[in-house]
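Provenance and format

Records in this collection were gathered into a single text stream. Each protein contributes a sequence line and a token line. The two records reproduced below are adjacent in the stream.
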Amino acid sequence: MSRVFGIIGHPLGHTLSPLVHNWGFKRFGIKARYEAWPTLPEELGAFMVRLRETPVEGLSVTIPHKTPVMAYVDAVTDLGRSVGAVNTLYWRDGELWAENTDVEGFCRPLVLRGIAPRAALILGCGGVARAAVAGLVRLGVERLAVTGRSAEKAAVLAGEFGLERVDWDRRADFPAGLLVNATPMGMTGRLEGLSPYPAEALGPDHVVYDLVYTPDPTHFGADALAAGGLVVSGMEMFLYQAVEQFRLWTGRILPDDELRTLLRKALYGA
């Protein structure tokens, strides 16, 4: 019998998760399938009831359910609770657990590249920003600050994690070696021509980690490259959070080099 996994969220659009996990199942000869289940916020409760009644072994969770879904599980890991959001459900000893693999996904590309900044600035205050903050705390970054177009939201996030808050209009004044874009600015579509950071303030000592990964490079990434800086694509975060999900569900490690090739072909045709 084929094992069943899937993803919930709304909208799901062209999610790459089915591509990644179904490829992984095939590569390791695992009899399983991974499906996309678009789920509106008002449908979450009923879906979670059905999940317990049917043999779904694992679930990816994306916007807007990463926080609300925590109320429907048996246990949340310490990391999931500290972030205040989860993206992965799995069974352990008959209990439904919730975990956040976005933090591992965020950290791994920095660790593999030996990037260890003394100061970092997170641009944005949403759910992905929370994962970035948790990741940078885990990595021991000495000085962390957050900024956003909403001063109120930035203040809430800063207060919750004990961060510095920087005014959006003064963001270029903060002495950050690492700049993390956790806003949708630069994303393919109506925001593609935007950057969350002034190009003239970028230099060769900056590392830009743009969690937007389409197009490649983004406007922000192109500005950083032109200034001689280093750019880390947000595709790497997606890749490694999926690797961690797959490990939780199957105990197998997806080869990152092969997965990166698969994702680049799907995203960029190369």
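Adjacent record:
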Amino acid sequence: MLILLPPSEGKSVPSRGNPLDLDTLTLPALTKAREAVLDALVELSSGDPTVAAETLGVPKTQSELIGLNASLRTSPSARADRVYTGVVYDALSFATLSPAAKRRASARVLVTSSLFGLVSPADRIPSYRLSGDATLPGLGGVAAHWRAHLDEAARDALGGGLLVDLRSGTYAAFWRPGPDLARRVATVRVLHEVGGVRKVVSHFNKATKGRITRDLLEAGATPRTPAALADTLRDLGWTVESGEAGRSGTQLDVIVTVL
């Protein structure tokens, strides 16, 4: 089983640790593609800070993020599961997982990254600012760049297991599993139900996906089909409705009533 998570816009800034070494990251086949994004981002951020901020969508109140990008090659790095913060990662709480669940996370979880494509929670990375919808001078759209490079690496990471796709729409565009993988792809949508009315609410969606990931890692579950995943989640106490299988996989709706 492979769980794909979105990144977080907010990130902690490591205060110590060796600088980034792309050769140590998971999925080394992506090294050249990572270098291309890194070069483009550092070059942009080392120039006119106003241009960099406008290009990257960085608010004036967070201008220090441009400096972080400019120093990506020399800044301290830390495990990705300590760098990524935000609602998904607060709910998942990597630091409080059991030892067995932490080992499973390193083997079964990948985070989609605008800078690195895909990273393991155990990969050491610096803090950075780069949104999934960004366009970099000399590189083009980040999403298009990764669409051209992720397929082989993602398939290798998946192997013969089930893909549990928890990415948001922006990051799902980085790699879309082909129809040949559809029977082994489960996408998860979270719906908040109040008074019989269901709707997607961003905060509920993110927090629930973090908790689902945590539950699967702690349980040591290894479902091999979307139907088996739905049954596993029900056994773990979640309310799940399964849609019809399609060319892009099977959508599972997780229904929540409280945060």
